[in-house]
């Protein structure tokens, strides 16, 4: 059975996007960027909701062709294109870059994918992750917390019907006061 991880950048007040879907509040560093890039290499399958897919696919497929792209960005772009991806959406009709589109029940498909053999799956996108969260499908939460309060927007966590008990398994700090906390779901 595969492990499903929800990992996202978030503000200290718990938002993955500010009002208006703003993402400019993140404080990155070369070390943090490399950490994200290494996660891509160790991800067997990435699950995307439509909005996150549109954000990622509008930039990373050609990021390595942009003037001034850093070696780390070149590496990440190649890794991202090669990583197998599943995009869940009922409003788009095609996907590219080693991805396949799923338009049916996301929870049923994620349940099926978890039952398969294979390595870790990462899930991204607030709506998709919240459906998996409410269904009890997420095995690990990775909060990459940036030292900023945005005051509203898209929350990392959704309203739940039941508590989810977690165990802290790792804390790591990065430059610019970014903290990564990794929690496993206690079942």
UniProtKB/TrEMBL annotation:
Q: Which residues form the Bacterial bifunctional deaminase-reductase C-terminal domain?
A: 4-180
Q: Which Pfam families match?
A: RibD_C
| InterPro entries documented for this protein | DHFR-like_dom_sf (IPR024072), RibDG_C (IPR002734), Riboflavin_Biosynth_HTPR (IPR050765)
**Top-level taxon in the UniProt lineage:** Bacteria
Listed name of the protein:
Dihydrofolate reductase family protein
Q: Which organism is it from?
A: Arthrobacter parietis
């Amino acid at each position: 059975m595969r492990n499903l991880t929800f990992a996202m950048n978030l503000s200290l007040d718990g938002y993955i996007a500010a009002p208006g879907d703003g993402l400019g509040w993140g404080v990155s560093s070369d070390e943090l960027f490399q950490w994200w890039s290494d996660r891509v290499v160790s991800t067997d399958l990435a699950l995307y909701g439509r909005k996150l897919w549109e954000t990622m696919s509008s930039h990373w497929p050609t990021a390595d062709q942009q003037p001034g792209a850093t070696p780390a960005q070149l590496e990440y772009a190649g890794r991202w294109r090669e990583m197998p991806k599943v995009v869940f959406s009922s409003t788009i009709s095609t996907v590219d870059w080693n991805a396949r589109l799923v338009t049916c029940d996301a929870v049923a498909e994620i349940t099926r994918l978890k039952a398969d053999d294979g390595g870790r799956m990462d899930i991204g996108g607030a709506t998709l992750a919240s459906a998996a969260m409410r269904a009890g499908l997420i095995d690990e939460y990775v909060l990459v917390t940036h030292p900023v309060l945005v005051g509203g927007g898209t929350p990392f966590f959704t309203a739940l019907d039941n508590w989810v008990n977690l165990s802290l398994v790792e804390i790591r700090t990065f430059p610019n006061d970014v903290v990564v906390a990794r929690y496993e779901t206690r079942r």
